[in-house]
Each structure stands twice: as C-alpha cells, then as structure tokens.
Design brief:
This protein is of the alpha/beta class. It has nine helices and six strands.
C-alpha cells in the first residue's frame, strides 16, 4: 500500500542483498510474497475504522497462512491498526513508524517534522514520548494530500517536487532537525536530501536485518517475507 511504493520497497530489499551481502544467484535472496490489499482510501477519507481494521487483519492472516516468517507493511497510515493486527497473527509485523522513530532516537533526532497523510497526522502516529513534532499548516496539508494522489496516479511532477521541498523547508525553519516523509508515496517523488528521512529505506533495511539476524530458532538468510 500503495502498489508502486511496494514495488519500490521490493527493489530496495533486493539492492541491499546485492550491495551489502553480495547476492548473485536466486538462492541468495529470501522468499518474498507480495500481497496487494485494495483498501478503501486511507489517505484522506472517513472510511469506518472497523472496516479498515478487518480488511487488514484478513490480509495479514492470508500471509500468515502462506507460512511467512514475518510481515512488513509499507504504509505509515495503517500503523494505527497494527496492535490489533499483530494480535491476529502469530508472526511478527514490522511497524514502519516504530522503526523510523527508533532510527531517529538512535541518532539524537528528537525534533521532527512530518509530511504525510491527513490520517497519519490526525492519529498522531509519530507523536511519542521524548519527541517534538511539527506539521505543515492546514493549507499545506491539503497540498500534500493532492501531491500524494498525483503520485498514486503514476505522475511525478517537477512542480510537486518543488512544492514538497518548500513545505519541508518551512518545517525545518520551525525548528525540526529532520523531516520525515511520512507517506510511502512521497519518497517516490523526492528523497535524496540530507534533512529528509525516508521511512521506506528504513523499512527495507529492517526487513533485511530480520532475514539476516532472525530471532533464536529461525534460520537466517532464507526467511519468507
């Protein structure tokens, strides 16, 4: 979620195995199952939360039924439901928001800006103890939502990139040390910037780490994701 961001995550995982672990043969890579779950819009609408939660749980159970060792969901917004989702399956579910927050705290980044969906903002997903969070203005938030939908439609416009950069700049001027691109479509538009944090890459690295250094009792290197 969304499909193109998921394809990007898959490629990032493959690149990490190639560059860091010298993967060449098909057998050097883990088994990966990609399940595209066609949820109702979670970017900016008021779809009943119980419907979203039940669809996510059914989706996770399908993957767990395929004997995966763990699940990764490339979506910040649905992290709101992950506690219930985790209770519904016996395998770990990697939380992109928690992974990104841990990344920030480990580097002393405690004042952050968030550019993401309206629902990520409304549900305060990045607001945890010890962090100070800045958001775009409400007008800027509407613009961000429009950009996200444009990316979802397959368009990567230079004018949208320029606007996104200006919104990031405004958050830095408010006092943010770094700005998190907290919707997984946004790094498809722009990510190579020192002051920007890319959760998509953080999740890709967490997935590879889970494969290479799994918990006791699970063999490394050939896990099914």
């Amino acid at each position: 979620m969304g499909p193109e961001a998921t394809a990007d995550l898959y490629l990032r995982i493959i690149r990490i195995f190639q560059r860091q672990y010298g993967a060449i043969y098909d057998s050097d890579f883990p088994e990966i199952l990609i399940y595209n779950l066609p949820l109702p819009d979670v970017v900016d609408n008021s779809t009943p939360s119980e419907l979203i939660k039940s669809m996510l749980i059914r989706g996770a159970q399908k993957l767990a039924g395929g004997a995966v060792d763990f699940i990764a969901i490339l979506c910040n917004t649905v992290s709101y439901y992950l506690e219930d989702l985790q209770k519904s399956v016996s395998v770990p579910v990697i939380n992109i928001v928690d992974q990104t927050i841990d990344y920030c705290k480990a580097r002393g980044i405690i004042t952050i800006g968030i550019v993401g969906t309206t629902n990520t903002r409304k549900n305060r997903l990045y607001e945890q103890e010890g962090l100070t969070v800045f958001y775009p203005t409400l007008n800027q938030q509407k613009i961000v939502t429009s950009i996200i939908f444009t990316i979802l439609s397959g368009k990567k416009r230079s004018r949208d990139r320029a606007v996104l950069k200006e919104i990031v700049k405004s958050l830095l001027q408010q006092g943010a040390q770094k700005v998190i691109l907290g919707c997984t479509e946004l790094p498809l538009l722009w990510r190579n910037e020192e002051k920007v944090i890319d959760p998509n890459q953080i999740l890709a690295e967490a997935v590879v780490k889970e494969c290479i250094n799994p918990p006791p009792g699970r063999k490394a290197g050939r896990n099914k994701i």
